[in-house]
């Protein structure tokens, strides 16, 4: 699909400088764009590329003034970066605008659907499943009995949603995600053998949540594992039973959160962080990558290390750690001098 500079400017409420009828059919980086591509410039470090880019259209800030001759058409907007994001969202809406029910698949007679459903081939929809409006379910998705899916949800291929799971509105669930599998609950007997503790709770995903590929979220033993509104989870994260993640918290890849831990709102958690069970993590907490959290964390703490401790203390300690061989060598020399009188 092709768009003219005029059409794009209308979408972005921008102003065209150059050929208003030039057409583009793809999006690209400013340093890699071809004649049919559109790109943007917002970071001053890339300004030099605007004079050499082969892209037909470049989105720039209103404040941009060329210092050399430019061959490309410009679209001037208030914020080039935000405008490009808006254009990406618009592009995705067109690209992903699938509707209808493909064959083969299994849909229970007791399942209900809203308007504008897309259901990909080889999907399974269980008994009494409720699915809202404008939901896109890509091929090879399993949705178990009594699950509920809100409006404007995208579920990518290979997702498995176990029974009783509740998913809110405007959520995106990427390929390979498993929601509602059993929590890791076992009870040892007197002989050291483990008996499985039934996991009879569910998972509740609130509105505006995005879950990255390969992430797993376990159902609760009792009650619910709850992912609150606006949470963003990266790829390959493990969320255990009865965990609660607060509003607008973001978690990077390969992090693991053990059972019954409660994480506050607006937290930022780096990759490969490990958090033990039954903890309380406060609001606005920042945890650096590969940290190990084994204690309750107060609001606004910044942590690093394993086991994690204060970010400033960690950096000061790390300076000494790097110099440890030199320090030991100096101590050995001092010891020799003392011993030799």
TrEMBL record:
It catalyses: a UDP-3-O-[(3R)-3-hydroxyacyl]-alpha-D-glucosamine + a (3R)-hydroxyacyl-[ACP] = a UDP-2-N,3-O-bis[(3R)-3-hydroxyacyl]-alpha-D-glucosamine + holo-[ACP] + H(+). Residues 22-89 form the UDP-3-O-[3-hydroxymyristoyl] glucosamine N-acyltransferase non-repeat region domain. The active site is at residue 241. Pathway: Bacterial outer membrane biogenesis; LPS lipid A biosynthesis. It holds the Pfam family LpxD. InterPro entries: Hexapep (IPR001451), Hexapep_transf_CS (IPR018357), LpxD (IPR007691), Trimer_LpxA-like_sf (IPR011004), UDP_GlcNAc_AcTrfase_non-rep (IPR020573). Its EC number is 2.3.1.191. Coiled coil: none annotated. GO terms for molecular function: N-acyltransferase activity; UDP-3-O-[(3R)-3-hydroxyacyl]-glucosamine N-acyltransferase activity. One of its GO terms (cellular component) is membrane. Keywords: Acyltransferase, Lipid A biosynthesis, Lipid biosynthesis, Lipid metabolism, Repeat, Transferase. Transmembrane segments: none annotated. Gene3D superfamilies: Hexapeptide repeat proteins, MurE/MurF, N-terminal domain. The keyword Acyltransferase applies. It is an enzyme of class 2 (transferase). GO terms for biological process: lipid A biosynthetic process. Catalyzes the N-acylation of UDP-3-O-acylglucosamine using 3-hydroxyacyl-ACP as the acyl donor. Is involved in the biosynthesis of lipid A, a phosphorylated glycolipid that anchors the lipopolysaccharide to the outer membrane of the cell. Belongs to the transferase hexapeptide repeat family. LpxD subfamily. Homotrimer. NCBIfam families: lipid_A_lpxD, PRK00892.1. This is UDP-3-O-acylglucosamine N-acyltransferase. It comes from Salegentibacter echinorum.
